[in-house]
Design a protein that fits this description.
This protein has about 425 residues and is an alpha/beta fold. It is about 30% helix and about 20% strand. It folds into three domains: about 5-100 and about 200-260, Adenylosuccinate Synthetase, Chain A, domain 1 (3-Layer(aba) Sandwich); about 105-195, Adenylosuccinate Synthetase, subunit A, domain 2; about 265-430, Adenylosuccinate Synthetase, Chain A, domain 3. The longest helix is centred in the middle third of the chain and has 22 residues, at about 155-175. The structure holds guanosine-5'-diphosphate, 6-O-phosphoryl inosine monophosphate and magnesium ion (MG).
């Protein structure tokens, strides 16, 4: 019953999509467990170049069922659009997609509220993706959300909307002074969604559980990263879900003991999109060079990603919370051009050296990174797929990251294509 959790180990965009596509060839199910279309997962393989926001990254491998779990928030219009785009690209998922009946839906008013709240925050804005994620999860916890199962019964949905929508409309009218949303417009959309998506809405918890029970392999597709976690991230500059190992369990109704492998996906350096502390951030030509070479622009919003050196303090913290059985280092090739590379091995705060990030965002803003400098490598690593072919200094660099993270680096990624991958240890065989 192997279940492989693929978790973002930094601030998102670590290359999870690439690794999930790589591993999904040996999977029975690939299942998303958190977030929504704030995620942007890039997959490049022999079928083409894809950017997925809601559909799991197992769709390119034959015989894989792709599951959207109960922990995900689903914008039905975005999902329909993504399914159609895949269909146009020759990827038919009409028999390989399931949506949990318990997944909450992102309603049009959630998208409006996200943007309105960000504008109101002014210079304290979080820099959200504007996709309605926060408001949809807020409604979930306030018990005023609409779930996928609700659109299967339009009469009951009407009664539900009559109870929850007046409050949202009060906020729209009285706080933001804009037009309220009509129940009829939501019901009309819901009928369309039911016609398009109704046959995919299923009790997926049981399906995933039974597949694991009968010896099947499940890849749990994480979105975002631990430092954006609602509890363990750099609050309030976080997302509204749990991209950590706990979220993998609750977001799919998988028993924690069923998760056999926990893979932490780390970029060989750090990036972040949106506001919030970033101790190793680079503001010089080195950062600009990495952004340009690596095309570090958001997959979902197109925003320039902030760039920084690898942060060993945050990496160790990430491992303490998620308990990785393997680390994966991606984008090693992006550092090919550098003569020397810094790694943050500690923080200095008020004269003290810290080996864990402080919980408060103000204190984290004040932390100064303590760097160790390693020599670069003069032979490029781009596209290498055997560990023995890596230049010695690149191996030294990865070994140092391994020490700092505190778990074995079992996969190294040297390019965006599925084949640009070094399997240091065949974790699928273990
Ligand atoms: P995700 O959100 O974690 O799936 O990551 P994104 O897809 O948002 O961003 C990762 C970017 O890095 C994408 O453009 C990938 O194509 C690219 N990528 C992934 N692995 C590698 C790698 O090893 N080398 C290079 N050069 N690019 C990579
Ligand atoms: P993937 O799955 C990088 C960031 C946003 C913002 C914060 C809150 O591709 O790694 P939200 O819209 O979630 O309320 O925004 O979280 N963010 C991401 N950054 N990768 C992502 O997903 C992200 N999803 C959300 O930029 O700072
Ligand atoms: Mg991404």
């Amino acid at each position: 019953m192997p279940a492989y959790a693929i978790l973002g180990a930094q601030w998102g965009d670590e290359g999870k999509g690439k690794i999930i596509d790589y591993l999904s060839r040996r999977a029975d199910i690939v299942a998303r467990f958190s977030g929504g279309n704030n995620a942007g997962h890039t997959v490049i393989n022999d079928l083409g170049n894809f950017s997925l926001h809601l559909v799991p990254c197992g769709v390119f491998s034959d015989g894989v069922m792709n599951v959207i779990g109960n922990g995900v928030v689903v914008d039905p219009d975005v999902l329909i659009e993504e399914m159609e785009a895949l269909q146009r690209g020759g990827i038919d998922i009409s028999h390989s997609l399931m949506i949990s009946e318990r997944a909450h839906l992102i309603m049009p008013y959630h998208v409006m509220l996200d943007t309105l709240a960000e504008t109101r925050r002014g210079n304290q804005a979080i820099g959200t993706t504007g996709k309605g994620i926060g408001p949809a999860y807020s409604d979930k916890t306030s018990r005023t959300g609409i779930r996928a199962a609700d659109i299967l019964d339009i009469e009951t949905l009407k009664v539900r909307l009559e109870s929850v929508l007046p409050f949202t409309n009060d906020i729209l009218e009285k706080i933001y002074e804009i037009e309220p949303v009509s129940i009829d417009s939501i019901l009309e959309k819901s009928e369309y969604w039911r016609n398009r998506l109704g046959s995919f809405i299923k009790p997926v918890g049981r399906y995933v559980h039974d597949t694991l029970d009968s010896g099947g392999t499940v890849v749990l597709e994480g979105a975002q990263g631990i430092l954006l976690d609602l509890d363990h991230g750099t609050y309030p500059f976080v997302t509204s879900s749990s991209p950590t190992i706990g979220g993998a369990s609750t977001g799919l109704a998988i028993q924690p003991r069923q998760i056999t492998n926990v893979l932490g996906i780390f970029k060989a350096y750090n990036t972040r999109v949106g506001s919030g502390p970033f101790p190793t951030e680079l503001f010089d030509n080195v950062g600009e060079g990495i952004r340009t070479i690596a095309k570090e622009f958001g997959t979902t919003t197109g925003r320039a990603r902030r760039i920084g050196w690898f942060d060993g303090v945050l990496a160790r913290y990430s491992n303490r919370i998620n308990g990785y059985t393997s680390a994966v280092i991606t984008r090693l090739d992006v550092l090919d051009h550098l003569d020397s590379i810094n790694i943050c091995v500690g923080y200095k705060l008020d004269g003290e050296i810290l080996d864990e990030p402080p919980g408060g965002v103000a204190a984290l803003e004040k932390c100064l990174p303590v760097y160790e400098t390693l020599e670069g490598w003069d032979t490029p690593t781009a596209g290498i797929s055997e560990v023995s072919k890596l230049p010695i200094n690149a191996r030294v660099y990865v070994d140092r990251l391994q020490e700092l993270i505190g778990c074995p680096v079992d996969i190294i990624s040297t390019g965006p294509h599925r084949d640009h991958t070094i399997m240091v240890r065949d974790i699928l065989a273990s």
